[in-house]
Specification:
DNA Polymerase III, Chain A, domain 2; 2 domains; 40% strand; elongated; 13-stranded antiparallel β-sheet; 266 residues; alpha+beta; 17 strands
Length: 266
């Protein structure tokens, strides 16, 4: 391996995946990130076995190399401590070496074959949505997800209801209920419901950015969202969300009151 890459590019890519890095003493490889070469970019992947995030980053120069894994947290801390400059990344035996202008760092690596990448799933439906639109939907409902699940583990997540021209998000912690619907430009679509885990929802909120579009795909046990240079995959909760949510909030009211949002907040 011999890569020349800008620190800001590498730092931004690592920042997106640090949220799913896990400290697992029984499986230390999931504390690492997988680095691979893909055409004119390198891909950096992190997973906690429930969520997998892959980010593609542009390099300045690179040779052909076999995939490797290295500590994601340590690599991010090193890159974050450097100013804007080009750094050289090489490998030697079981080590990765990062050379900056005035310093050099060495990190241990683990074989890429041990990295638990997600298998390609069969998706039942897909749709395109603006990132800002999806982020708004998640922000409006994520606050009422159950934090500490007991027997109601299916409430520790967000129900997504896919229907022609509509995507609805529903969350409840048994004290509050949040429902929000956004419009999709897709009439011919299967009616699908799935529950996305709380951790996955929060990570998706953290990394969604920009005004571009996102392509979402839903399967029987996985959901995938691709946008710009990022691929986000999450396992789904295997459970049944209470169907009674549909009748909790009345669709009509005898009295309607219009209030200034800022006045309520203050």
């Amino acid at each position: 391996m011999n890569i020349l890459i800008n620190t800001n590019t590498l730092k931004n890519s690592l920042h997106k995946i640090t949220g799913v890095l896990s400290k697992n003493l029984s499986m230390p490889v999931i504390s690492n990130v997988l680095i691979e070469k893909k055409k004119k970019q390198i891909s950096i992947t992190a997973t906690n076995l429930e969520i997998q995030i892959t980010v593609n980053a542009d390099y300045l120069e690179s040779d052909e190399f076999d995939p490797i894994t290295v500590s994601g947290t340590k690599l991010y801390e090193i890159v974050r401590s450097l100013d804007n400059q080009n750094v050289q990344i090489t490998t030697s035996k079981d080590n990765l070496v990062l050379k900056a202008n005035t310093s050099s760092f060495k990190l241990s690596t683990l074989p890429a074959v041990k990295f638990p990448s997600f298998e390609e799933a069969k998706f039942l439906e897909e749709f395109t949505i603006k990132q800002t639109q999806l982020l708004d939907l998640l922000n409006k409902t994520s606050f009422s997800m159950l934090v500490d699940p007991d027997i109601n583990f299916f409430l520790a997540g967000m129900l997504l209801v896919l229907a022609p021209n509509n995507l609805t998000a529903v969350t409840t912690d048994r004290h509050r209920l949040a429902i929000s619907t956004t419009r999709l430009e897709k009439k011919q679509i299967n009616n699908i419901e799935c529950i996305v885990p709380r951790k996955a929802v929060l990570e998706l909120i953290r990394i969604l950015h920009g005004d571009g579009e996102a392509k979402a795909r839903v399967g029987s046990n996985q959901m995938r969202v691709d946008f710009k240079d990022t691929s986000f995959i999450s396992k789904l909760i295997d459970g049944k969300f209470p169907g009674s949510w549909r009748g909790v909030i009345p669709t009509t009211a005898a009295i309607e009151i219009l209030l200034e949002k800022q006045n309520i907040r203050s």
